[in-house]
Design brief:
The structure is a single chain. By secondary structure, the chain is mainly alpha-helical. The protein has a single domain, classed as Orthogonal Bundle (TerB-like), CATH 1.10.3680.10. Helix content is 68%, strand content 0%. Helix 1 runs antiparallel to helix 2, helix 1 packs antiparallel against helix 6 and helix 5 crosses helix 7.
């Protein structure tokens, strides 16, 4: 990812929140999973209060991603989609709105549909059986 570390962290967090909140609001379990995924990908934790505050102030993520897309390399785009997908699976309930938001995130970053599908297939292979999209 060619963007600065702070921008990367913000985009990862906002992508997860956007997908989790697409069906209405970020549930407590989704907030906890987002917190865990964030720590795994960024290397440091974020207080649950910060996750909840970010969920309250959802801005135009798609516009931010579209603006950042030229500075994001393939791996950076994949990382954003992967963490967003993991957040989608957080509550073991996948709403159509969440799937659509994930697709919108890919489109905003100009990820070709075939590459987007390959990313999701790759994740499905690596996730434990109970954590895959149904």
């Amino acid at each position: 990812m060619d963007v600065t570390g702070d921008v990367r962290e913000i985009l990862l967090l906002k992508a997860m929140i956007a997908v989790a909140a697409a069906d209405g609001a970020v549930s407590p379990i989704e907030a906890e999973v987002i917190q865990q995924i964030y720590a795994q990908h960024v290397g440091h934790s974020i207080p649950i209060e910060a996750v909840n505050a970010a969920a309250e102030t959802r801005a135009s993520l798609l516009a931010e991603l579209a603006a950042a897309a030229p500075s994001l390399d393939r791996a950076g785009k994949e990382e954003i989609l992967c963490v967003a997908y993991l957040a989608l699976l957080a509550d073991d309930r996948i709403a159509g709105e969440e799937r659509k938001k994930l697709h919108d995130i890919a489109a905003a970053m100009k990820v070709p549909e075939i590459h987007f599908g390959a990313i999701l297939e790759g994740l499905a292979i690596t996730l434990p059986a109970g954590r895959q999209a149904r």
